[in-house]
Amino acid sequence: MAIIEVAHLTKVYGQQVACRDICLSVEEGQIFGFLGPNGAGKSTLVKMLVGLVYPTAGTALVAGYAPTDTRSRRQIGFLPENFRLHGWLKGSELVNFHARLAGLDYRSAKRSSQAALELVGLAKEGEKLVANYSKGMQQRLGLAAALVGDPRVVFLDEPTSALDPLGRREVREILLSLKAAGKTVFLNSHLLSEVEQVCDRVSIINRGLVVADGKPHELQAASTAVAIKLSGLPVLLAVELQRDYPRLQIEGDLLTLRAQSPEDTADVVAKLAAQGCRIYEVTPHHNSLEDVYVHLMQEGEKTCG
Amino acid sequence: MWLMAVFTFKEAMRKRVVLVAVLLTLAFLILYGTGLHFTLGMDVRIADPAAANVFKLLEALTMFSMGIYLASFLVAGLAILAAVGSIAGEIENGTLYPLAARPLTRRDLLLGKYFGLAAMLVTYSALFFLALVGLVYWQTGLLLPGRWVALALFALKPLVLLSVTMLGTTKLPTLGNGVLAFGLYALSVLGGMIEQIGVMLGSTAAVYIGVVTSLILPADAVYRRVVATVVDSLAQGTSPDMVFFNPAHVLGPFGSHSTPSDWMLLYTAGYIVVMLIVAVRVFNRRDV
After folding, report:
1. What is the ipTM of this complex?
2. Interface mutation vs chain A, best among B3, B4, B14, B97, most A CBs within 10 Å
3. Each residue of A117-175: pLDDT tens digit?
4. DSSP calls for A167-227
5. What class does CATH assign to A2-219?
6. Among 3.40.190.10, 3.30.1330.10, 3.30.70.2470, 1.10.150.80, what is the CATH number of A224-286?
7. pTM reported for the whole predicted model
8. Nearest C-alpha of chain A: how many angstroms from B283?
């Protein structure tokens, strides 16, 4: 069941298009990664999904309600990017206040905020003033405030940007524990390795447009490079292949094909064999999500259906 | 909304602006009390005991009005500074994002902030007013009549400024809002002063200028009503002694020669409500 439905969502600020015709759907219980370079429109989309920014066009539903509806907000947690917390509060007071705003009564809020502080590793720091927290601690505290009140969907906008590698690993573990508890996580990030490790599905946005969408391994497989070591390639066949596959490279006895699908590889190998080429090796090169991302950023854009 | 109000009240009480205001107020009260002691303690010889009594009363009234006039500047400053960035400033520094995404309507968020700040300002104004009344009583033995109504009106003034500043912060950046709010307040004070001088000199045009500025921002009108409340009550309470002087005239442009009517008070209440309604509408439409 989709818990986040976005249809043709567009946001324009004056002449600047922040998001253009974005369509996506996130299933409940998934960790969904939303990738893109700085300024691509990631934060704008998240702000529209939590009701902070009004779309110019299109619709969105979160947990069955419009993002501005308090019934939707009751079911979400949100860690914004570039946020600041109220420095005059103690850490425990801040998380407790968010728990109360989330609708919990005094006792439940106390319990829930304590549990959230423990989850992010700040249980012993709760009595300190937020103003005295380091940047990394503030990010953890923001995460605790987002998780308090048992939300069904958690929107995290660059949740590890201020954390050291150990902190990042801990956040990844928290994300996986949320998934195990059946929560949906919408993770905005430009840290590809992080997304690759935890996300069930990924969308990539560039200049306001979604340019790719799917499971990480599908995206990686979709543009797999294959190296074919061969001999006896006829000139006419080489010309024909380069015409049919613009991203095919031939260097001596090595042919490299960036295939759009596994069928492309099979077709090329069949043609080579049919023309009497001797094929010694067919080696697929597995792309990382980073390769896919860089390739897509260079490749251009495609609109959603 | 009330959670937000309590939060805002606590925040306001812990902010430096309130600490600075409290310290300034203490300094003001010490200076004011010292001034009262030395000016009212002067040995002025008037042969007629009734006239001497009236002189003492008017002296006390003048010092009280001056105190209230200057106190209202401090209260106004605190009202504007406390609210000037309460929406726009929090968007600029990023503290509003996590709050605005909570199951809280924009209306509740804004009104919560308004009521939280209003509670702080009413507390501050009331304590300030009572301190002034207490100092006057200590130095003159005069327990000002009409003080409770005057106190309520004195506490109303910052609420007017607060409502305008809250509207401003839903649309304007912090600095721009501060300039606008202080500018409007200066206009209101100037208009009020011109109106009082207009009454004394019999200039209808000057009076109209004051009326128009009071309609734009009825802050000074509320101050005039505070003074009028005390002066009128004083005249009623000591009417046999007041046959020689009209206390309002003694106070000059700091007095209330043209007393704002009950309709003006009603307008002021309506003004606050309208400012808040418009503020909620503007905030409802803006991106955070």
Report:
1. 0.81
2. B97
3. 998 889 888 899 999 998 888 888 999 999 998 899 999 998 888 788 888 888 888 88
4. HHHHHHHHHHHHHHTT-EEEEEES-HHHHHHH-SEEEEEETTEEEEEE-HHHHHHHT-EEE
5. alpha beta
6. 3.30.70.2470
7. 0.83
8. 11
